[in-house]
Design brief:
With about 400 residues, this protein is an alpha+beta fold. The protein contains 10 helices and 6 strands, in the order ααααααααααββββββ. It has helices at about 10-20, 45-120, 130-135, 140-225, 230-240, 245-260, 265-280, 285-295, 310-320, 330-335, and strands at about 340, 350-355, 360-365, 370, 380-385, 390-395. It has a 6-stranded antiparallel β-sheet with strand order 1-6-2-3-4-5. The longest helix has about 90 residues, at about 140-225.
Length: about 400
């Protein structure tokens, strides 16, 4: 192990901070100054290991920030929907109040008629067929009076029935108005709660972004203090360390299959675009593969979705968008796409890594994936198992 080069002593404190980012954390604590002291890297190898650790920690943090952004959007959409519901309920209240006014007006008409009938009764207006018989001057006169009495009785009954119906309508309208008011109040409360949730999520996002920006500055100083050769060696060591026995066996099988087919690694490097597109299962997958291969050599940037820089999930998102298909934004969400066994992968399929998932690449065929791995490392093609641990295949629905 070579001694730590004096020219890199300026990175010692920077490295100490960078390795404070743990892999796969669900949250980020900005107060790095309060963290327990971290051993200062004493060698170039330790500096490279610190750089890899920081890079992977940043990848996980990048995904957390993306998820926080989505939480803000979801909360804001919920607030907007609640406000729309509240507005609609206010319209229902207005309609219900109008029904109450109409019903009350109708009831007042019948109420005056009923008051007149009641007043007549109190004044002693007592009519009967017997009194008509006693006062009638002739049989024809009697029949006329009885007919008139029947009409009066019918009008009274009809008036009372109509009045009751009007009262029922008014009561129902009032109940509907009260229910509408209660619904409006609930919708308004839900809207306020959703807005508060969105604001809290936005505040959390701002805090994470601020911490992330500060850490990016630290991290950039770290990896720029290392030579390109050292970075390449660190990446290769990291990828090799991730290989499980099963992964090593797959790599050996893939190499043997390529050899049997007469395909050399140099041929794959030269002709990978044609090979991958030709092996694509359909036109859309071919377009996505061709598109992603045009991004080789471009830089990794946190939160970027192209067209000239990308993070890991942004790269595969952009590639499939070129084929007219939208997929989820983050690698964790992309891992919910239908799974496919690794031995059945086709060009255009996605391969997610780590547990929980924090990384993704696109399968090209011949046991290779293209991925945006970390800042300082251009978008590149690597063997599937060297892009990270716990590879899982996923097929994009189309």
């Amino acid at each position: 192990m070579a001694p730590y080069a004096p020219s890199r002593m300026k990175a010692v404190l920077i490295i100490s901070l960078a390795v404070a980012v743990s892999l796969g954390t669900a949250s980020f604590t900005p107060a790095l100054a309060d963290a327990a002291p971290i051993a200062t890297p004493a060698t170039s190898d330790e500096a490279k290991a610190a750089w890899i650790s920081a890079a992977n920690g940043m990848e996980a943090l990048n995904q957390n920030v993306l998820l926080a952004q989505q939480a803000v959007g979801t909360a804001q959409a919920t607030a907007a929907a609640a406000q729309t519901a509240a507005d609609a309920t206010l319209g229902a209240i207005t309609a219900a109040d109008a029904q109450v006014a109409t019903a009350d007006a109708g009831l007042s008409v019948y109420r005056s008629k009923l008051d007149a009938i009641a007043n007549a009764s109190l004044r002693g207006a007592r009519l009967s067929q017997l009194s008509s018989l006693l006062t009638a001057g002739s049989p024809d006169d009697y029949l006329d009076q009885v007919a008139a009495l029947s009409q009066v009785a019918g009008d009274t009954v009809q008036t009372m029935s109509a009045a009751q119906a009007a009262k029922d309508t008014a009561d129902a309208a009032k109940a509907a108005a009260e229910a509408a008011r209660a619904a409006a109040a609930q919708a308004a409360t839900e809207a306020q709660n959703a807005i508060a949730t969105a604001q809290a999520a936005a505040t959390d996002l701002v805090n994470q972004q601020g911490a992330m920006t500060a850490q990016i500055t630290v991290y950039e100083r770290l990896y720029t203090s290392l030579s390109v050769t050292e970075r390449g060696a660190a990446i290769d060591q990291f990828a090799t360390a991730n290989l499980s026995p099963e992964a090593q066996a797959r790599l050996a099988e893939q190499a043997a299959a390529r050899a049997d087919a007469g395909i050399t690694d140099s041929q794959i490097a030269a002709d990978i675009t044609d090979l991958s597109v030709l092996q694509a299962p359909d036109t859309m997958a071919g377009i996505a593969v061709a598109a992603v291969l045009t991004r080789r050599g471009m830089p990794y940037v946190w939160g970027a979705v192209g067209p000239d820089s990308f993070d890991c999930s942004g790269l595969v998102l952009w590639a499939w968008q070129q084929a007219g298909i939208n997929i989820p934004r983050t690698s964790s969400e992309q891992s919910t796409l239908p799974e496919v066994p690794l031995d059945q992968l086709q060009p255009g399929d996605l391969v997610t890594y780590y547990s929980p998932v924090t990384h993704v690449g696109m399968y090209l065929g011949n046991g290779l994936v293209l991925h945006a791995s970390m800042p300082g490392v251009p978008i590149t093609v690597v063997p599937l198992d060297k892009a990270g641990p716990n590879p899982t295949g996923h097929r994009v629905p189309r």
